[in-house]
Each structure stands twice: as structure tokens, then as C-alpha cells.
Design brief:
single chain, mainly alpha, about 0% strand
Length: about 290
């Protein structure tokens, strides 16, 4: 007896937002809404941005969320008249123009990866250096008064002020206790572990603390993040000029700014919310709500 044909499992019905997202070349929306695919977008467009010559890279000196907002405003404005844009000659490309929404989302992600804040290593080490210096110096002063340690060296360590001097004191005190280890045996509560730690912490801080007036060294990770952000910004700027602004000027001529605002404009009208939402909607909302 022939088997009955297996029932097909109905696929998930696509929403208007899913269709709009796919049409624009963006990653499908997930549970996380607008941030879905932002890291992937940054990675995807960065491959293309790597081909831009270094001399042409433009540094981003603005809020990436504002850029995303203005891109959304412009794309929403031209979306109803895309059929008219098909007559525009090259280099205009409708798909390239649509990709700007996802590219802007990737830029927001890339900008968020630039973290110039200190991980707090120096602050923690300075706190410990203060503690060790206090222990060692108190003991050294008592031993100096008892005639065990040379007064000249102890007073030299006591002189001076400031963070760098305090750090140097840790190194000098550790060396003082090591030089007179035989004389100090059984005469101090300072341990070998404290002496070694004072020396180690002091050396680490001397390497971390830069001299007054010296230029701070930018960590390699920060440099890489800045370059990625600026390359994406450059790619977006060029594509915006070549595609979205070109389309806006063709449609509205001298009133283009009212519909397709410049990337850094803070006078853009409120962007219409696409039915069902769309990739990147939340980033634009933060700007729209905040003014």
C-alpha cells in the first residue's frame, strides 16, 4: 500500500520588516532588534573599506548615531520614489544606496569599539605602591634612628613628592633593604615578600607612568579600532555622496536638505517609522527622541 505523502511543514511567514530588511541587504532581524547583525555589518563592509588608500581616509569626528539617523531619514524619504531613480545613470546604483542603512549600523558598532579608557591597571598598582611604601619607609625610619640603616639614604628617599617619586621610593626602599639584609636579620617585621613586591610594583609603574609633558602612547588595539571606524566612515561618506545625496538632488534639486539631510545635520526632520520596524530602528529612535 503506497505511503501517504508527508505533510510539508509550513515555513515561517515573512513579515514586511523581514522583506524590507532583505531588500536593503541587511541581516535579518532577530530577538535583539536593531542591533542584530551590527557586528557582521561592520565586518562585511570593512573588507571593502580596506581598499581605500590610507591618504584618503577621513577621521570620524562626529556622533555615529547621528549619522545613522540622517541616513535613515534620507532613505525613508526616497523609498517611495525608487522607481523614478532607476533612470539615473551610473555611478548611481539602487542597491548600493539601499546598503547605506546597514553600513551606517556597522559604523555605529565600529565607533562603539573605540575605547580609550584605561583598564585601571595603573590605579590599582598605585594604591598598592602607596601601601608598600608606607610599610617599608616606616620601618626604614625606625631602623635609621636605631643606627641600623644609613641616614643619608633614608632621608634621600623621604625627600620629594608626587606619584612618580613615590613609585621610585618603592624601588629604592626595596634595594635599601636588600643591600642591608644581613644587618636587618631579626630586627624588622618587613618580609622578603613585601620587599620583592615593592620592587616589582615600582618597576611596573615606572614603565606605565609617562613623564610630565610626554605624549601618551596609544595602545595597538585602540589604533586598530580607530582605523576600522574611520575606514567605514570614509566608505559611508563616499557612498552617501555618490548615491543617496545624488538621488535627493535629482528628486528635489535645491530642497534636497529638507528630504536627504547632510550626514552631520542636526536639523533633520523626524524619520518615519517603517511598518513593523526595521534593522537599525532603535539607533535612530534614540536620536529622534533626544532631539
Amino acid at each position: 500500500m503506497p505511503k501517504a505523502p508527508a505533510k510539508k511543514t509550513p515555513g515561517k511567514q515573512k513579515t514586511s520588516a523581514d522583506r524590507k530588511t532583505a531588500r536593503e541587504g541587511a541581516a535579518p532581524r532577530g530577538a535583539s532588534g536593531e542591533i542584530q547583525g551590527s557586528a557582521e555589518a561592520a565586518a562585511d563592509f570593512l573588507q571593502e573599506a580596506q581598499s581605500i588608500p590610507a591618504r584618503e581616509i577621513r577621521p570620524l569626528r562626529a556622533d555615529a548615531a547621528l549619522v545613522h539617523h540622517n541616513i535613515s531619514v534620507g532613505l525613508d524619504a526616497v523609498s517611495a520614489r525608487e522607481a523614478e531613480l532607476l533612470t539615473l545613470p551610473a555611478p548611481f546604483d539602487l542597491d548600493a544606496m539601499r546598503s547605506l542603512r546597514r553600513l551606517a549600523l556597522g559604523l555605529v558598532y565600529a565607533a562603539a569599539q573605540v575605547d580609550r579608557s584605561s583598564p585601571g591597571t595603573a590605579k590599582k598598582l598605585l594604591k598598592r605602591a602607596h601601601e608598600l611604601r608606607d610599610v617599608l619607609l616606616s620601618a626604614a625610619v625606625a631602623l635609621m634612628k636605631a643606627g641600623v640603616l644609613p641616614a643619608q639614604r633614608v632621608k634621600k628617599i623621604m625627600a620629594g613628592s608626587g606619584a612618580r617619586d613615590m613609585v621610585q621610593d618603592c624601588v629604592d626602599l626595596a634595594q635599601l633593604f636588600r643591600d642591608h639584609a644581613a644587618d636587618l636579620r631579626g630586627k624588622t617585621a618587613v618580609t622578603r615578600a613585601q620587599i620583592d613586591e615593592a620592587s616589582t610594583v615600582g618597576d611596573q609603574l615606572l614603565a606605565l607612568l609617562r613623564p610630565k609633558g610626554a605624549k601618551a602612547k596609544t595602545p595597538a588595539a585602540v589604533k586598530d579600532a580607530v582605523e576600522a571606524r574611520d575606514r567605514l566612515w570614509t566608505l559611508l561618506s563616499l557612498r552617501h555622496e555618490e548615491q543617496l545625496r545624488r538621488a535627493g538632488m535629482w528628486l528635489w534639486v535645491d530642497k534636497v536638505d529638507e528630504h536627504v539631510p547632510p550626514l552631520l545635520s542636526r536639523a533633520a526632520r523626524k524619520a518615519k517609522r517603517p511598518s513593523g520596524g526595521g534593522a537599525g530602528e532603535g539607533v535612530g529612535d534614540s536620536i529622534r527622541d533626544g532631539g
